[in-house]
Structure prediction request, 486 residues.
Amino acid sequence: MKIDPQSSADLSAQIAQAIRDAIISGQLIVDERLPSESELAEQFNVSRPTVREALKRLAAQSLIRTQRGATGGAFVNRLSFEGAYSQQVTTSTLLLSMNAVSFDTACEARYALERACASLSAQRRTADQLATMRAEIFRQAQPGLTDEAFCASDVAFHRALVDGAGNPVLSYQLASAVEAMQPLMNMITFTARSREEIIALHANIANALEARDAEKVDAALVQLESYTRQLAQDVAQKKRKPA
Amino acid sequence: MKIDPQSSADLSAQIAQAIRDAIISGQLIVDERLPSESELAEQFNVSRPTVREALKRLAAQSLIRTQRGATGGAFVNRLSFEGAYSQQVTTSTLLLSMNAVSFDTACEARYALERACASLSAQRRTADQLATMRAEIFRQAQPGLTDEAFCASDVAFHRALVDGAGNPVLSYQLASAVEAMQPLMNMITFTARSREEIIALHANIANALEARDAEKVDAALVQLESYTRQLAQDVAQKKRKPA
DNA sequence: AAATTTTTATTTGTCTGACATTTAAAAGTC
DNA sequence: GACTTTTAAATGTCAGACAAATAAAAATTT
Prediction:
């Protein structure tokens, strides 16, 4: 692990990169303890605050964790799906909100991905996952539900659908896409009529999954996508030309 | 932007979270300048090193950038697809290498996602993207190509296929999945025979895209997936029982 | 007056040294 | 032997300083 004293980049960034490379290349393995901050400072020939800034950078990426105390220090993290997932949600959400990605584009991506695991889900979904979906459908039908709560339940429903594929990599990638869209979905007002429609489509999906009928799941998802886009369009139109 | 003095979490982590929340919620907008480090230190009632650690955390997530000098400071970054993408590749690569995700699981996820944009790509791919694919196929046929170079070209080919869908969100999500698998793919030795086979399948895909035939693209991808998994299995078997 | 150079102020980057806090192990005590 | 106290090591935080970069302001020259 060396740094280039000629480089114009921040020392803390260089040190972080050096350690990051060591982790990625396997020189540092999971749960291994890094040298103490003072030792690292000596190794890299910098001061402790500089080392600390580097370590905080790595901590922000969940590459390391720190513990205080006698046997404390910085340890290489085992990257968990959960951790990576929540980080991914933050990033995706910001991407959507900052880059003026159109609702249609986001929607298209989401459903394209979701349909990708629908057929796997039809094969593998467990009874538990099906029950979760049914429970969420039931919740969605409750009167007096706020739009936010309705959307949250919608996310949970689709999350269960995705998890049904039984592939953690897919769950990780997809769940973040679904969740990142939630702020956009929250901007849609769901009338009683549109909720009914969505719930019916959700029920179709659940029924098709119960029957392990991949084609019907796919068809229902296609319908749900086009209906969602229709709703968004109506909302956009009303905004332009308020009654 | 406030922090909880009762909390046991690091001050720098709390401050980073407070600023992060402000960015996500839109209180701080793109290219807006944060208060100077000294001002932030005063606001949060902490020292400057602590503020700096917080800012480094945000910089590690590309949420902010810093500039030195008179009009310098920390500015809110516009999250770019490229930046998010490279970060995502790092995370996904580590996830695959650290969590003993089986090759089959990763492969299944990758092709499920890839097939998801194949039909879009068949509709929308540009002549340029098709030409890129053809060029990569040509490169793959060159004798004397190392396995690493072959894999890199493979990534480029699939990247072009994904980009053909014309949906930046899909490109972003998918390209990272494809690229994250590269280290795993690099462990496979591609014999002349297997390269031939893969190149033929790539050609099938390109032809089908040229004809804008979504079904044929899908079929070729299914074949490619099963062939890739077959290859990986052979490699694993040879490792267990070396000739 | 215009162009160039110098100065100056501001801001981040880095260093030094100190103290607080947490934690586990070692030492001491009952 | 079980419990308590001490100690040492590590991270967390602070204060103050200087270095380096940078742009604006001021001064100088043409």
